Amino acid sequence: MELADILLPDAILAGAKATSKKRALQDASLLAQDVYQLPAKEILTALQDRELLGPTGMGHGVAIPHARLPMIDRVWGLFLRLDKPVDFNAVDRQPVDLVFVLFAPEGAVADHLKALALVSRTLRDEAICAKLRSTDDPSAIYSILTGNLKSKAA
């Protein structure tokens, strides 16, 4: 699995104006509706329910909100780069400006975990995060996210 397998070029929102975690999740839900034709209300509810189980802020300005959904048959992702960092209850208590959202089918536990590990590994790379923070161009963000894995595989 590579990020290009789960992230479409249109599934990137650069320079998102969210001022809170709730607003970031709402923006992600609307993007999921536009890109993947998923019901925004149900997506938002699933993401908020998951956040109640424990925060998805992994530290260093990165969060990976995720949810299992009955209406999909494969793992999908979205990426948001926020204009201003927001509180995501991250483990290091630092605000978040890079948000990678994952959706997985309800029964696809292994694929869900593989995707979480892949995204986590990618966004733990300080150089990648610095590049992501330096651009508002969605196509550049897509290239940074997906190009990195190809260069490491070679």
Question: Secondary structure elements and their pairing?
Answer:
Blueprint: H1 3-6, E1 7-16, H2 21-36, H3 40-53, E2 57-59, E3 62-63, E4 66-69, E5 76-86, E6 96-105, H4 109-123, H5 126-133, H6 138-153
Parallel strand pairs: 1-5, 3-6, 4-6
Antiparallel strand pairs: 2-3, 5-6
Helix pairs in contact: 2-3
Brief rundown of the structure:
It contains six helices and six strands, in the order αβααβββββααα.
Measured distance between first and last alpha carbons:
15 Å
Order of helices and strands: HEHHEEEEEHHH
**Structural category:** alpha/beta
The CATH superfamily name is Mannitol-specific EII, Chain A
User: Please, what is the oligomeric state?
Assistant: single chain
Please count the helical segments.
6
Mean pLDDT: 89
Low-confidence stretches: 148-154
CATH architectural type: 3-Layer(aba) Sandwich
Beta-sheet strand percentage? 25-35%
Structure notes:
This protein has a single domain (3-149), classed as Mannitol-specific EII, Chain A (3-Layer(aba) Sandwich). The chain is built from six helices and six strands, in the order αβααβββββααα. It has helices at residues 3-6, 21-36, 40-53, 109-123, 126-133, 138-153; strands at 7-16, 57-59, 62-63, 66-69, 76-86, 96-105. Strands 1, 2, 3, 4, 5 and 6 form a six-stranded mixed β-sheet that branches. A hairpin with a 2-residue loop joins strand 2 (57-59) and strand 3 (62-63). The longest helix has 16 residues, at 21-36. It is globular, with a radius of gyration of 14 Å.
